[in-house]
Specification:
Residues 431-440 have a biased composition (Basic and acidic residues). The structure is a single chain. By secondary structure, the chain is of the alpha+beta class. The protein has three domains: 2-60, no CATH class; 99-187, PDZ domain (Pdz3 Domain, Roll), CATH 2.30.42; 191-345 and 359-469, 2-enoyl-CoA Hydratase, Chain A, domain 1 (Alpha-Beta Complex). The chain is built from twelve helices and 20 strands. The strands form four sheets. A seven-stranded mixed β-sheet has the order 10-11-12-15-16-19-20, with helices on both faces. Strands 3, 4, 5, 6, 7 and 8 form a six-stranded antiparallel β-sheet that branches. It starts with a helix and ends with a helix. Residues 20-30 and 408-441 have low confidence and may be disordered.
Length: 470
């Protein structure tokens, strides 16, 4: 019996050692000095592998065991590293193009449960009233504790028009809530724009996708044409923007910054992870695109500007806010951002699979690390319609195994706090709904007449114009 276990374990040891050697993990870990393979740890792995193969209640394939081992290695590092099987890799590629099927929620994993990072605007989850920080404990009749994040995402995806029941734990709710959601094709409109009033424009970026840069350029050109070049102020709204593609965030920053201005730089262990991205076409264009920022009106670089952020502004949106803040190009207004200051590289492995691996931290032009800290607004303005959500909002620092901030002391300015003109309305007690026990709060529409933070931004822009006139 023991010899059979040892034989099976040695096969497992050979498999995992072969994987390590073929991927040259030793060389990747330290290119200057190759480290020997961890023989004792691999021996322990082989013993566990052998025990599972010989004694587990049901037969388990080698492929499943190796896949689960890889998944465990990555998820044990930080909340953003992950193994992407063929389906997950395909979904990642589709998601950056701005159209995919599902419920419309950005999710992560915490304590074996699916945690909502942010509902995507105009999605089924958004309209149903799901909130950042919600913990999904059950999908239909299946407990989430028994699933990997990939498995849970697969169950939430499905044929448009089909329904799924989500059971959710919410910090401020006395009992679990249920949401009956109808799956839909999620078409994320990356850039939305309008004139709030003559001379004052509003542009919202909901997510940084492949075409965000050119969509932003189109919106800016149209807005300036409508005002015949007499734009007095611009509000860039990055609230609840979970991020996206790095080059698109560089493009958005470059639209408002002088040529060659530093937008962001990254620091990692390997030379490939060290980059300096500036406001030049080579750093934001892809696939031989034409420079869509080339013909923007000159006034785009100088028009008074406010950037709105909140706890749902993460990653790429924090890069833009940090760059415009450090270059003193815009006033940052709102509440402290999420604090995701790490870079994930998608590394294909073959068979249409990949790993998403955290390879670097990013820094603002002034050298600030945003990781687990976020962007502190110049002017802190809480919206009475969302102040309760901000209290319970999850941030990077709340995630288990989050990457630490590399700077022991972070010098951040203290923002000026503006209290809401009207008190926040108290939370209503849960009422029975046709779809379940969850209340359906009125969702704030960013850019609407009820948008308190937007109106504060417009008031500030008018004040700046008055001062400039004097």
């Amino acid at each position: 019996m023991r010899s059979r276990i040892e034989k099976t374990g040695l096969i497992g040891l050979g498999l995992i050692a072969g994987v390590l050697i073929s991927l040259q993990f030793s060389a990747i870990a330290d290119k200057d000095s190759a480290e020997p393979l961890p023989i004792e740890e691999l021996r322990a792995f082989s013993e566990v592998f052998g025990r599972i193969k010989s004694d587990y209640v049901e037969p388990v394939t080698d492929k499943k065991l190796i896949t689960e081992a890889i998944t465990g290695m990555l998820t044990g590092l930080d909340p953003h590293s992950a193994y992407l099987d063929a389906d997950a890799f395909k979904e990642l590629q589709i998601g950056t193009q701005g159209e995919f099927g599902g419920l419309g929620i950005e999710v992560g994993m915490e304590d074996g449960l699916v945690k909502v990072i942010s509902p995507i605007e105009d999605s089924p989850a958004y309209h149903a009233g799901m909130k950042s920080g919600d913990l999904i404990i059950k999908l239909d009749d299946v407990m989430v504790k028994s699933l990997t994040l990939g498995d849970a995402v697969k169950r939430m995806r499905g044929k448009p028009g089909s329904k799924i029941i989500l059971t959710v734990i919410r910090k401020d709710a006395p009992k679990p809530l249920t949401f009956t959601l109808t799956r839909a094709i999620i078409k994320v409109q990356s850039v939305k724009s309008k004139l709030v009033e003559p001379g004052y424009a509003f542009i919202r970026i909901t997510q940084f996708q492949e075409h965000t840069g050119e969509n932003l350029a189109t919106a800016l050109n149209n807005l300036f044409k409508q005002n015949q070049g007499t734009m007095k102020g611009l509000v860039l709204d990055l609230r609840n923007d979970p991020g996206g593609l790095l080059n698109s965030s560089v493009a958005a920053s470059a639209a408002f910054l002088p040529k060659d201005a530093l937008v962001v730089y990254t620091e990692g262990r390997n030379s490939d992870a060290k980059m300096r991205l500036t406001a030049v076409p080579n750093d934001y264009l892809r696939n031989n695109e034409k420079d869509y920022l080339k013909n923007l009106p000159a006034a785009v670089k100088t028009v008074p500007m406010i950037v709105l952020v909140n706890g749902g502004s993460a990653s790429a949106s924090e890069i833009v806010a940090g760059a415009l803040q450090d270059h003193k190009r815009a006033v940052i207004m709102g509440t402290q951002t999420f604090g995701k200051g790490s870079v994930q590289s998608v590394l294909p492995l073959g068979n249409n699979t990949a790993i998403k691996l955290t390879t670097a931290r990013y820094f603002t032009p002034g050298g600030r690390s945003i990781q687990a800290k976020g962007i502190v607004p110049d002017i802190v303005v809480e919206d009475p319609a969302t102040v309760e959500d901000q209290t319970f909002r999850m941030r990077e620092a709340d995630l288990e195994r989050h990457l630490s901030n590399s700077q022991e002391v972070v010098d951040v300015k203290v923002g000026v706090t503006v209290k809401p003109a009207v008190p926040a309305t108290p939370a209503k007690s849960p009422t029975k709904r046709e779809e379940g026990d969850a209340t359906k709060p009125k969702m704030l529409e960013f850019g609407s007449k009820e948008d308190y933070q937007l109106h504060q931004a417009i008031n500030l822009l008018k004040g700046i114009n008055i001062l400039q006139g004097k």
